[in-house]
Amino acid sequence: MTLLGKRALVTGASRGIGAAIATALAAEGADVAITYEKSAEAAAEVVAKIKAFGVKSVAIQADSADPAAVQASVAKTVAELGGLDILVNNAGILRLAEVKDMSLDDINALLNVNVRAPIVASQAAIPHLGKGGRIINIGSFFADKVPGGAGLPVYALTKSALTAFSQGLARELGSRDITVNVVQPGSIDTDMNPAHGPFGENLRSLTALGRYGTVDDIGHMVAFLASDKAQYITGTALTVDGGANA
Ligand code: NDP
After folding, report:
1. What pTM value is reported for the model?
2. Hey, how many other C-beta atoms are within 10 angstroms of the C-beta on 150?
């Protein structure tokens, strides 16, 4: 129980990696609020799973593309859980297109959800975070290496932006003993990137381990970073990709 008494907010946690992160934090004793955009039923199931650990949980509908909703989700977390110690900016979207073909709508959606929302959520969370506070941003191994022909440049840009943001914010918050890091998943089997989807074979072949990762592989890393055991890790990006960038 490394997170007993801590209060966490995980964005985009009705499914996939976010749901696993929220569950991993709860398993270590944290109270956990989650946000979702559309999947109210799935979010309620995650909340029930979290509560089974004997901790508090609440699901908050909040579109990450809407800054006011993001701010309100932080305020609601503080009101429901009595404070905030850990912010995990996980909500993200993938839109694939060559740069010459990408619509302005897709560019804006990627920037708003993947980049602006983590900034706005961090802004709203910072006043509430105390000594030992944590901000963990979910990036992508595509921030380090961008395969050609896959329509990834703008998505990869949004994820590499999180690295610079986290480095700078780690310096701003270091004197308050708050850490800021990025976790960069490799290919993790979710609705966004199904292991048996159209890119599955190619992405699997990039890994040293010869397989996709599971959502729990990311949940465990985030729970570790959130704990006191990771107190001297800040301003860095930790890649969990089965050796895809090896
Ligand atoms: P999924 O598409 O499987 O799940 C996305 C989650 O985010 C859902 O809970 C969804 O809510 C929520 N979400 C999506 N858009 C919004 C929004 N506008 N506002 C609020 N919530 C939103 O994604 P993954 O679990 O695969 O990805 C999670 C994170 O990990 C993302 O940041 C992604 O970029 C990153 N990542 C994933 C990799 C992978 O291989 N899977 C690899 C590298 C990085 P709802 O159910 O309501 O739609």
Report:
1. 0.99
2. 15
